[in-house]
Design goal:
Length: about 300
């Protein structure tokens, strides 16, 4: 198997790519083609904005592929096609990653099918704690925050009438403003949590495939479990998946409904003496409290 690209090499190439893209008249050497990363998407009738985030992620991944090589091949189920009909059909083509599902039953069904077809399931819609606990599956990676993470964030802020989300369109630091601007410019609406989850899921899948030099689910999944698998989601801290339940480590944002225009509160707060993983593991289910035993 080819050696994975280190995070340092990956970032170095990204800097070079950014400088080239910023200079339209510069010509670059064509990168040898490699097999595309195949992704299957089950659209959500409940949260249609998620599809916009996925679209932005795919557009950006395809743009990056002109410099890094490869590509992204996305197959989307028809809007009126049921999950029961669409999922087996899409997974029969053995995509590396499948996204979709809104309810606990739908997400568990997709995770089960993905595991049976040697694909990965990226959960971008279900915050149900059971999917990270008694119903956890090795093939499932949970991009959206768990219900436990959201509850804990609200509890820590002690703010009445508050809600916690994975993203807020008012975020500015760490490049969040440019991401919000890109989304607003393309879709003429603010980027909310469902859109961010869809966008970062595609970004993680593409970058993991590139750095692992692989386009198959098992190889990408193995890379996501390594210590070098961390990603920038414009939240100021490196995002990574927990080994014990495959929940994406990330800060979340608490806002008060009564405080219009108030800056969202980030939870957990960053501490100078902690690295990103230690800091983010203060939010949600700790390793010692996890009841996840991989279902086969």
């Amino acid at each position: 198997m080819p050696r994975p690209i280190s995070r340092r090499d990956f970032l170095s190439r990204a800097v070079v790519a950014a400088s080239v893209l910023a200079t339209p008249r510069v010509r670059w050497r064509t990168v040898p083609a490699r097999a595309p990363l195949r992704i299957a998407v089950i659209p959500s009738a409940r949260t249609p904005d998620r599809a916009l985030g996925i679209q932005l992620g795919v557009d950006e991944a395809r743009h990056a592929a002109t410099l890094f090589g490869g590509g992204v091949d996305v197959t989307v189920a028809a809007p009126n096609e049921s999950l029961e009909r669409a999922a087996p059909r899409l997974l029969a083509a053995r995509p590396a990653v499948v996204l979709g599902g809104d309810t606990r039953a739908e997400c568990d069904h997709l995770a089960e099918l993905a595991q049976a077809h040697a694909s990965l399931y990226f959960n971008v819609g279900c915050d149900d704690d059971g999917l990270r606990g008694a119903q956890c599956r090795r093939a499932a990676f949970h991009v959206c925050p768990s219900a436990a993470m959201l509850r804990q964030a609200v509890s820590e802020t002690r703010a009445g009438g508050a809600t916690a989300e994975a993203w807020d369109p008012a975020l500015v630091k760490f490049g969040a403003d440019t991401l919000n601007e890109r989304f607003q410019k393309q879709f003429h609406r603010p980027m909310g949590a469902p859109s961010w989850c869809g966008w970062v899921a595609i970004k993680i899948a593409w970058e993991a495939s590139l750095r692992a030099r692989a386009v198959d689910g098992p190889s990408i999944g193995a890379f996501l479990e390594t210590s070098s698998a961390q990603f920038d989601g414009h939240k100021g801290r490196a995002l990574s998946f927990r080994l014990w339940d495959h929940q994406l480590r990330q800060p979340v944002y608490v806002t008060q409904a009564r405080a219009a225009g108030a800056e969202p509160i980030e939870v957990p707060s960053s501490r100078a003496e902690e690295d990103a993983r230690t800091s983010l593991d203060r939010l949600g289910t700790a390793r010692a409290a996890s009841i996840c035993v991989w279902k086969t």
